[in-house]
Amino acid sequence: MSTLHILTHSPFADSRLASCLRLLSADDGLLLCGDAVYALQNGTRTCEALELMPSSIGLYALQEDVQARALQVPERVQCIDYPQFVALTLQHAKVNSWL
Amino acid sequence: MKFAIALHAPAHSPAARRALRFAEAALAGGHEIMRLFFYQDGVHSASSTVVSPQDELDTARQWREFVAQHQLDAVVCIAAALRRGELNTEEAQRYQRSAASIDAPWALSGLGQLHEAIQQCDRLICFGGH
User: How close A83 comes to chain B (CA, Å)?
Assistant: First the structure.
C-alpha cells in the first residue's frame, strides 16, 4: 500500500522533509507544494538528498508554486498541475499531509 | 471517486487557495466531494466577515461561491469555530455575542462529521501549512 506524502513547509524552517525522507517506502510518492518547493533550490543539501532518492519513489512539485518562486526543477522531479494532483492522490492508497 | 477535503488554514493562507483549486479540479475531473470539513484555523476560511484587500484574492468569498454553486456538504467544526469567534446566529444568541459570521452554505457541526466522511470517502485530503 503506497502513500502519497504532501509537504508544504520549507525544509529550511523545520525538519518535516528530513523526517519524511526517512519514512518513505519503496513505492511512495512525495509532493512538494507551497514553501516546500524551496527544497528544489539548486546546490542545496535538500535538493541533493531528493536526487539521491530511489527511482521507485515518485517526486513531484506543484507547478504554480515552483513558478511563483522562479525555481529550476531537477529532471528527477515532475512538475504537476491541479488535475494531475487529483490523479496522483488516486494513484496512491493513502494520502498523508504533513500539516 | 469520493473525496473528503479538510482545510486547516485561514482564508489568507496559500493552503486555503490550494485546497480550493484542488476541489475545483476534482469536480472538473468527474469526481465527487462528499464533504468539506473546515477545522482549526480553517474555520476562518468559512467566515462571512472576512474583508480582503482589493488587490488580493478573496479566498473566503471564492470558497463560499464554490460551495453554493455545487451545493456541497460544507461543515465547519463547531468547537474550533466558537473558540475563534466564528459563530452562526444560533450560537451568537446562545452565548449572547453581538455578531454572527458563519451562515449558509456553511453548517456548524462536530468532529463526528469528519469521522463519518473518512469512513465513507475514497480519499481524505488535508490542506494546511503555508
Answer: 5
φ and ψ of A5, to 5 deg: -100, 135
The number of distinct structural domains making up chain A is: 1
Q: Domain span at residue A43?
A: 3-98
Quote ipTM for the complex. 0.96
Closest CA to B28 of B85, B87, B69: B69
Of A82, A83, A95, the CB nearest to B123: A95
Task: pLDDT band for B104, please (50, 70, 90 cuts).
Answer: very high
Q: How confident is the model over A31-59, as pLDDT tens digits?
A: 999 999 999 999 999 999 999 999 999 99
In the structure, what pLDDT confidence band is assigned to residue B129 with cuts at 50, 70 and 90?
confident
For residue A27, which phi and psi values (nearest 5 degrees)?
A: -105, 10
Q: Provide the CATH number for the domain around residue A78.
A: 3.40.1260.10
B77 is a catalytic site residue: yes
Collapse the DSSP code of A43 into the 3-class scheme (helix H, G, I; strand E, B; otherwise coil) and give the result.
coil
DSSP-derived secondary structure letter, B4? E
Fold that domain B2-127 belongs to in CATH:
Hypothetical Protein Ychn; Chain: A, (3.40.1260)
Cβ–Cβ contact B30 with A under 8 A: no
